[in-house]
Amino acid sequence: MGQKVDPRVLRLGINKTWNSLWYNKKNYKNLLQQDIVLVDYIKARYKTAGIAEVRVERSIAKLRIVIKTNKPGIIIGRGGQGLEDLRKDLERKFLFNEKLKAIIDVKEVKSMNESAQLLADDAAFQLEKRIAFRRIMKMMLDKAMQDRNINGIKISLSGRLGGAEMSRVEWLAKGNIPLHTLKANIDFAKSTARTTYGAIGVKVWLNKVSAKPAVDRYKK
After folding, report:
1. Exposure pattern of 73-91 as b/e (b: 16+ CB <10 Å)?
2. Between the CA of residue 167 and those of 131, 159, 200, 205, what are the distances in Å?
3. DSSP H/E element including 169
């Protein structure tokens, strides 16, 4: 039985980094759990904002949250009021026992093809709208490969596809996806479509044009 590993984990320190950028030896477990709950809250609150990534950075007096989204206007709001309301809610719900000031930065993802998470969420949304799964896969492959920053893409769907009685796995790939090459800039994401026939899992692999290494471990 094959054992599948998240390609982002293999590339930590090479061209990928952690979503929680801090270290606390004494209270590590509680802070990490707080990060997970905080990120889930933001994603659930802004389901329609197209959130690609949420990164948490901690210091002694500040907690900085970086949100990468395809629709920053939904989060920022008119005159920045939405951003201020989010900051107050986070401080009230998650940081009330700590003397930390929350700082929120919103960064725009210009193209949906730049993020595997955005593609996976979009595929899940279309599946819930009862669009044919093969049409979704082919359209996403063709659209992604038109982007100059994409070298390859792979999409996998699993579940009762098309309302079939038995679940199965269907996948399509286009271009080059070198999962065993650690220097390859592979982006990976998962999403779930809740349909009348049950849950359908969506996985997306993106081979993007190589970025600068997160840590140059080979430099003397």
Report:
1. ebbbeeeeebbeebbeebe
2. 18, 4, 9, 21
3. strand 168-175
Dist CA 177 CA 190 (whole Å): 17
* Structure tokens that stand for 211 in this block: 């970025």
Predicted TM-score (pTM) of the model is 0.85
Q: Are 174 and 152 in contact (CB under 8 A)?
A: yes
- pLDDT tens profile 138-172: 999 999 999 888 999 999 999 999 889 999 999 99
Amino acid (one-letter) located at 27: N
Residue 58, phi then psi, degrees to nearest 5: -115, 145
What is the CA 134 to chain-centroid distance, rounded? 23
Q: Which tokens is 53 given?
A: 């990534």
Query: Contact, 163 vs 119, CB < 8 A?
Result: no
Q: What is the pLDDT of residues 52-80, one digit of tens each?
A: 999 999 888 888 999 999 999 999 988 88
